[in-house]
Amino acid sequence: MPDATITATRQRQQLRRQFRQRRRALSRGQRRRASARFGPALTRAIKHRPARHIGIYLPNDGELDLQPALRHPRFQQACTYLPFVDPLRPGYLQFRLWQHHHPMRPNAYGIQEPALRYRGRALWALDVIILPAVAFDEAGYRLGMGGGYYDRTLEQLARHPRQPRLVAAGYDFQKMERGELPVAPWDQPVDCIVTAASE
């Protein structure tokens, strides 16, 4: 492995530790306030684009909670879909219909997924996909948890003319300046970043 690649990998690992630690250090009140601010910010970001079918995530490891945002009038009629690890293609995600009363189960990483085979939706057929991130930069590149699931999955969108709006969600402090985040060749940029202040 070239020295530059090793250096970039170490930088990404260091940034991942740093931002995850800061994210986990937020108090319950700080997380709640940030989540309450996210709905209006998300509405402004997607503007008049369709938002009938939305891919979301459930918060893990201190991530921003999207649930208050989905109570915004703009999204009350939307169908929500959660990612789950594709059992037939390891390393990839699918999106499965989710409602609050659906039973859940933890996957191999301890992240909750729909337990039953509720109706899924093709990636390209979603209107908006909201992605978690450990950090992101102004160019739309995001640093994830390191598994590469979202990047491998989103790469498939290049084969479809219809594209969902890709939104990275997080706290204000997770946003980095353009060029500060080491970008890997497999990283898939998002269309926009939506953040909320935790203070």
Structural key phrases:
199 residues; alpha/beta; Rossmann fold; 7-stranded mixed beta sheet; 4 helices
Care to describe what's here?
Helices cover 26% and strands 24% of the residues. The strands form three sheets. The protein has a seven-stranded mixed beta sheet with strand order 6-3-2-1-7-10-12. Strands 9-8-11 form a three-stranded mixed beta sheet, with helices on one face. The chain has a two-stranded antiparallel sheet with strand order 4-5. With 199 residues, the protein is of the alpha/beta class. The chain has a single domain (3-196), classed as Rossmann fold, CATH 3.40.50.
Across the major sheet, the strand order is 6-3-2-1-7-10-12
- CATH superfamily (homologous) name: NagB/RpiA/CoA transferase-like
Secondary-structure element pattern, one letter each: HHEHEEEEEEEEHEEE
Could you give the distance between the termini? 42 Å
Task: Draw up the topology in text.
Elements: H1 3-24, H2 28-46, E1 53-55, H3 67-70, E2 79-85, E3 93-98, E4 104-106, E5 112-114, E6 120-121, E7 128-132, E8 135-137, E9 142-143, H4 149-154, E10 165-171, E11 175-176, E12 192-196
Parallel strand pairs: 1-2, 1-7, 7-10, 8-11, 10-12
Antiparallel strand pairs: 2-3, 3-6, 4-5, 8-9
